[in-house]
From TrEMBL:
Coiled coil: none annotated. Belongs to the RecR family. It comes from the Bacteria. Residues 79-175 form the Toprim domain. One of its GO terms (biological process) is DNA recombination. The gene is recR. It comes from Holospora obtusa F1. Keywords: DNA damage, DNA recombination, DNA repair, Metal-binding, Zinc, Zinc-finger. Transmembrane segments: none annotated. May play a role in DNA repair. It seems to be involved in an RecBC-independent recombinational process of DNA repair. It may act with RecF and RecO. A zinc finger (C4-type) spans 56-71. GO terms for molecular function: DNA binding; zinc ion binding. It holds the Pfam family RecR_C. This is Recombination protein RecR.
Amino acid sequence: MVGEKLRGLIQLLSKFPGLGPRSARRIALYLLSHRSKVLKPLMAYLDDVNLRYKYCSVCHYLDEEDPCGLCRSKTRDSTTLCIVACIGDVWALERASFFKGYYHILGGLISLSHGKNPEDLNIETLKNRLSIGISEVVVALDSTLDGQSTLHYLIQDVFPLYPHIKVSSLARGLPMGGELESLDQATLMSAFWGRREVNSALFSNTTSWSDFEKGK
Ligand SMILES: [Zn+2]
């Protein structure tokens, strides 16, 4: 018989990415069995992290400062912007440490199955950045249906507004269904260096997101 509060804790934990009810039950029991060494320090840490970290108003990275450390860097190439879906993708690229431009984090991917639309992503701040000083954009999105839908939307509805910007996307060598975060550094680097220029002509016979929305 699991008490109501404990059941609530297990339900909360089971919402974590990669955790199911079984793992959630084990973690809940572990936390309650190690209160002084794990549970209490964790509570204090979570509180501290929650208070300290905020989203960067420029690129949407998480940092203690706004703008974040990446955006404040003076040594990066200010003409190149890499568009990624999430903060974990920035970590993957920074671990491989070959990209020296700035980042823009969309905050997710367009997803019909999850009801995620372009207006749910950080597109307006992207447009603001593209209008000043950027000459090259690298789109580094997952090789999934949602990643490709998002790339398609950017090519159809966003990049044509900035025809002077050279746009490329990661090479097709990525495994289908591949998420950036889970790629090894060599694969990520070869996909990055093998990136191909993309333009709206590639998708001239397909429907733009706004037309698709209108036709729904
Ligand atoms: Zn930033």
